[in-house]
Request: fold
Amino acid sequence: MTNAPRRRSILLVRPSREDLQLVGLYVGKVAFGLGLVQLIPLGVALLQQEWNSATALAIGAAGAMAMGLSAEIRLHSDRQLLWSHGLVTVAAAWLVGAMLLAIPLWLSGHWGSYLDATFEAMSGLTATGLSLTQDIDHLPTSMNLLRHLSQFIGGQGIIIVVLTMFASTSGVGTLYVGEGRDDRIVPNIIRAARFIYLVAGTYLVIGTLALMAAGMVAGLSPIRSLLHSLNLFMASFDTGGFATNSTSIKFYHSAGVEAVVIVLMIAGTLSFGLHYELWRGRRRDLIENIETRSLAVTFLVTCSLLLVALAQVGVLDGMGSSLRTGVFMILSAHTTTGFSTVHPNMIGEHWGLVAPAILVITMSLGGMASSTAGGMKGIRIALAAKSTVRDIRSTLAPDAAVIVTSYRARTRRVLTDGDVRAAMTIIVLFLGTYLLGAVVGVYYGFPLDRALFESVSATANGGLSAGVLSPDNPAVLKATYLVQMWLGRLEFMTAFAMLGYIVAIVRGRR
Amino acid sequence: MSASTPIRPATIARVIVSFLLAAGLVFAIWGVRQNAPTSGQDFTIPEAADVAELETTVERCGRTLPDQPALPDTDGVRDFGRVSSTAVVECPDLFDQQSVVYVGEVVGDILRRDGGAWVLVNDDDYALEVGPAGSSAELRGANSGLSVWLPGDMADELGRPGGPGWRGDVIQLSGIIHRVDELDGGGLTLRASTMHVVAPAAAADTPVNRAQLALALGLVAIVATMFSVERRVAARR
Reply:
């Protein structure tokens, strides 16, 4: 036996009171913001005379605002946020936010348990679109609006809500980046946050009007069309995928509605940085950007494969229906929106193995970084592909040759090993989480293909279902999907930072 | 991470008190949710409505057709009698281009166009047994239904579709199932040939949850007080 002294391999510094105070203060600000957001559906509930929904929303709003105010009173600080504070704040805020929004949902009587309601709120905030709502076809208008609003604020980022409402410049950049927005649109974070809402607001007006027109052509009355359009816009542009009824987009039986939704889904999956360039009239960025190219290639490949797979299984007769269904489903999967024109059971039971597998791969790829979409993101796929090509070229080139690879993401950049390592780390984490979730699904008796479909859908914030998810699922399976949605939205590192913080509280040195 | 000030016992005590307050609020909310009043309203379809009995029960068949029962056959179209939406979704091949009877509640909106109307007709427990979830406090899972095309002026007989606080018209339809309806972009539909209303639309009594109202008022008062305290504290800083 050796007498070597025990050594700690990692230096963990226990967070001080001031550290926790700062995290609590900013989580409280997010809570207060979410309380204010609930006043919108509360107003609708009063107008619609949905009295129990109104009191449920009042409890939800007041609870969230009480938390925010107590943080402001007890924890006020003028200290600047450091990186660790920012990351922990973001991770905690998304968890607390889901738990707060779950309160009115649970009280509405349409969710079987508080876990189900928290699942729904997390699905909304992360713009996933998986749902445990029971009897959605009789759900109060105000509660439906709350679900869709959660996608709107979550799609842009709930921290953005705080930035724009309670603007302060001391270190808020850490919050912005922690939420998965590593693309600085403009140097000033507050201006960047406001630009994101400017884009979202502009699309809100145009998109809602276009959907309203399509809805009226489909047969809705103007007022009903407006209500549907508002919710549908938030679920489309924010690549959320919630619907106001049990049959998703199929409810409208309208190619026009599907066409407008497709445009909004694509707009939502473009990064806000690219929107900024387009806003400034730089249309060439759309073509030259490595991510748009990557997405175009993966869309064309997966769409072609899906159409072939559907033709082989023979579930859709005729070219017209195959094209309409295939293109919509691939775009819904690729943008990680989760709208469906097909019953989940049809995908799981009647589409064979290949077609659902293509949807799984497409969902796992996801949209653009710094957009409302989820998944591994086009930039990482493109960087991994470029790195592979570079390595092959290096192998074939003379020893003295130096192979330099560049890519364009708003500006021309040289591909470094650091870029590749960062991209591959996240890709591996996504793949591992897909598999872990599938194992839990298989443990509870679901076939591997369907368990993997649902696991990928949750982690990539996709929202399509192969019929596994239901209110009858075991609590552990629901909790697994809930954590997967959270991890996928924050792209792991922010969540890991919070877990590291908790370990530091328990085991760290003073 | 700053290491200037360690966490003091007083801080831990404050955190514990905060957690206890939050737990008290959670307990109150849980109590309100568990004791939500129910209307006791009866939503079952009256026997006098003369609704067809459910005949075909199919659980799982995938793409393989199960042993098909001997059914009346007219020019290749078999009459399955009354079917459930679950059976049709489970075995679309079995019912494709076949005649069925279907009973359910019209929900959502009536989409009138092209000389007819599209409706969503649910045959789940909320439609045929317990009524809208919020009023009965009984949860029976997700909704289940079929997309139905009502030709001509058939939809004119319908009243208010089901939605928040309403159970819509319950109708009995006969028609043909289309596994891939080209006119609907490949959707699974029922194209109706006859329809009659077996139970008219009815408002669901939703009693006001008084405990929930009291909790809401109490919390709003607390927030108003906290807001004024916060303003005063902010002014002193």
